[in-house]
Design a protein that fits this description.
The complex is a heterodimer of chains A (178) and B (158).
Chain A (H helix, E strand, L loop, with lengths): L1 H22 L14 E2 L4 E2 L9 E2 L8 E6 L4 H15 L5 E6 L6 H9 L6 E4 L3 H5 L7 E5 L4 E7 L4 H17 L1
Parallel strand pairs in A: 4-5, 5-6
Antiparallel strand pairs in A: 1-8, 2-3, 4-7, 7-8
Chain B lengths: L1 H12 L15 H12 L17 H15 L4 H12 L14 H34 L7 H14 L1
The chains are: A alpha/beta (178), B mainly alpha (158).
Chain lengths: 178, 158
């Protein structure tokens, strides 16, 4: 019994080490969105410069859609851009864009003109109104919205061919069935 | 000493550097005060361990502006906090709320301190009672063989 007592500190250490091993390898930016299974927050964004139509929450009803938060200043958005173009080219699912925090109102349109525009509609969000309503913490973030206009999934970071094939495209197909 | 006092006064006169820009400040000081109180409790979601009140991040700025807009529109402090929590979850609050999921967080440390104190009490009680026994045990006197050896050694030396 006495001997076992001496092992106690080692035991406590191992338990703590276990917690740290898990806790310290978690990504603190991976935050569960509280908006999952909730209706898209109401918003009505103006068009970006040179575009006729803006983008409002009403546009999202009736079909499965993606809402992608991007900005011309955002490097990871550049990384995922070819994949979004590919989704548009193959007509897999409509993507709606929120052009977030452009300092220069020309920057967003110029970025899209140069690289191609994968979006069905784009809203201008210079003051993070829609971004905060969506609980966005960084760009890019992509929300998966079902036919009823409910947010069903939040993808943080770029959409890549890999995560599209493994997770995101099956999810779109699943949402379509419902 | 004089230098020390003047340095101390200087340090006390400095207000902490806040990120709130003059253009954001509300005209009504009472509302601005409330906006500051709310902002201090809201986490800058980009920088994680700063409040939006002292973060220079752009999203923190936009959140500060939103806090002020809502306060001007007539929201109570709690309503503004509730709105932010409805968007970002409890994570956005720098002080986590007391609820079932956070019981371990709030009560864990006092419970562990309590266990530590208990262990200490038990440890010292045991040691004290053991100590009494040690004091009572007087070293045994030399036996016959030892005494002879000691005598021999003393004689050799002399």
């Amino acid at each position: 019994m006495k001997r076992l007592m001496y092992l106690l500190p080692l035991g406590i250490f191992l338990v703590l080490a276990g917690y740290f091993a898990v806790g310290l390898t978690l990504n603190p930016r991976d935050m569960p969105s509280v908006l999952i299974d909730q209706e898209v927050p109401p918003f009505d964004l103006k068009p970006i410069r040179g575009y006729e139509k803006g983008f409002s929450s009403e546009d999202l009803k009736g079909q499965v859609t993606l809402v992608n938060v991007f900005g011309s200043w955002c490097i990871s958005c550049l990384a995922e851009h070819p994949m979004l173009m590919e989704i548009k080219r193959r007509e897999l699912v409509p993507i709606y864009g929120i052009d977030w925090r452009e300092r220069d109102p020309e920057a967003g349109p110029r970025w899209l003109a140069k690289r191609g525009d994968p979006y069905t509609l784009i809203g201008d969000d210079p003051e993070s109104k829609a971004a905060i309503a969506f609980g966005v913490t960084g760009a890019p973030e992509t929300f998966f919205v079902d036919k009823r206009g409910f947010i069903r999934y939040k993808h943080v970071g770029p959409v890549t061919p890999e995560n599209w094939e493994s997770t995101l495209w099956p999810l779109v197909q699943e949402l379509r069935k419902q | 000493m004089k230098i020390f006092i003047s340095l101390l006064l200087l340090a006390l006169s400095l207000s902490p550097a806040m990120a709130v820009e003059p253009s954001e400040v509300l005209a009504d000081p009472a509302l601005e005060q409330r906006a500051r109180e709310v902002s201090v409790g809201l986490r800058c979601v980009v920088c994680q361990n700063q409040s939006i009140d002292d973060s220079n991040a752009e999203l923190a700025r936009d959140m500060r502006v939103l806090v002020r807009e809502r306060i001007v529109a007539g929201d109570s402090n709690q309503q503004v906090l509730d709105y932010m929590v409805s968007r970002y979850g409890d994570f956005v609050l720098l002080k986590p709320p007391l609820k079932q999921a956070t019981y371990v967080l709030w009560f864990g440390p006092p419970v562990i301190v309590g266990i530590g104190v208990l262990v200490l009490i038990v440890f010292y009680r045991r040691r004290d009672s053991a100590g009494v026994e040690v004091v009572e045990a007087v070293p045994a006197a030399l036996n016959e063989k030892e005494r002879r050896r000691l005598d021999a050694l003393m004689k050799d030396d002399g």
